[in-house]
Amino acid sequence: MTHNLSQCRLLVSKAVAAGAKALFLPEASDYIAPSASETVSLAQPTSTSPFVLGLRSSAREHRLPINVGIHEPARDGKKVKNTLVWIDEDGEIKERYQKLHLFDVDIPGGPVLKESNSVEKGMAIFPPFETALGNVGMLICFDVCSYLSLSLVHYERSGLAFDSHLLCSFAFPNPRFFCAAKALI
């Protein structure tokens, strides 16, 4: 996580130097662990996570809002929440969104990937919220496949922060839609 935080802070500096009004970082920017059990063991609350606290400090120092994907412990302690947070220019977490559509695949004779084994499913899509950039809404990765049409009703006059560690392979018709892609390694 220390390495990823230093990479994110470098991106904050580059964004500020380039005149950016906000920085959109990918899903799981804090870490990608080699196993589900390690993913769960590394999760920390936003109030104590050095990664989150470091980005909050950078947002405040540079007066730059940051949208970032993180892991949070789930209530039961056996899973994590795949969360997207909006840190405002004062370094405060103003919005959070929890991934709804978990990536579960079981290909006969092939790979078995069950995100639901270690990730707690979110409960709702929220309407866009006001920022200095205008209204912004949030989805994470596979949510866009399942909920894009529903989301477009909410996001018709807003930007969408689509957070994914998967490479985006589609174009949105509205140029105000944002796509943060590719995990920090």
Give an overview of the whole structure.
With 185 residues, the protein is α/β, with parallel strands linked by helices. It is 26% helix and 27% strand. The chain is built from four helices and eleven strands. The chain has helices at residues 2-17, 36-42, 50-62, 143-155, and strands at residues 23-24, 66-73, 80-87, 93-98, 104-106, 112-114, 119-120, 129-131, 134-140, 159-163, 178-180. Strands 1, 2, 3, 4 and 7 form a five-stranded mixed β-sheet that branches. A hairpin with a 2-residue loop joins strand 8 and strand 9 (134-140). Helix 1 runs parallel beside helix 3 (50-62). The longest helix is centred in the N-terminal third of the chain and has 16 residues, at 2-17. The protein is globular. Residues 164-185 have low confidence and may be disordered.
| DSSP strand count | 11
Average pLDDT, all residues: 82
**Termini gap:** 10 Å
Indicate the low-confidence ranges by residue numbers: 164-185
Structural class: alpha/beta
Describe how the helices and strands are arranged.
Elements: H1 2-17, E1 23-24, H2 36-42, H3 50-62, E2 66-73, E3 80-87, E4 93-98, E5 104-106, E6 112-114, E7 119-120, E8 129-131, E9 134-140, H4 143-155, E10 159-163, E11 178-180
Parallel strand pairs: 1-2, 3-7, 9-10, 10-11
Antiparallel strand pairs: 2-3, 3-4, 5-6, 8-9
Helix pairs in contact: 1-3
Notable traits:
5-stranded mixed β-sheet, alpha/beta, globular, 4 helices, 185 residues
Task: Briefly say what this structure is.
The chain is α/β, with parallel strands linked by helices and 185 residues long. It has helices at residues 2-17, 36-42, 50-62, 143-155, and strands spanning 23-24, 66-73, 80-87, 93-98, 104-106, 112-114, 119-120, 129-131, 134-140, 159-163, 178-180.
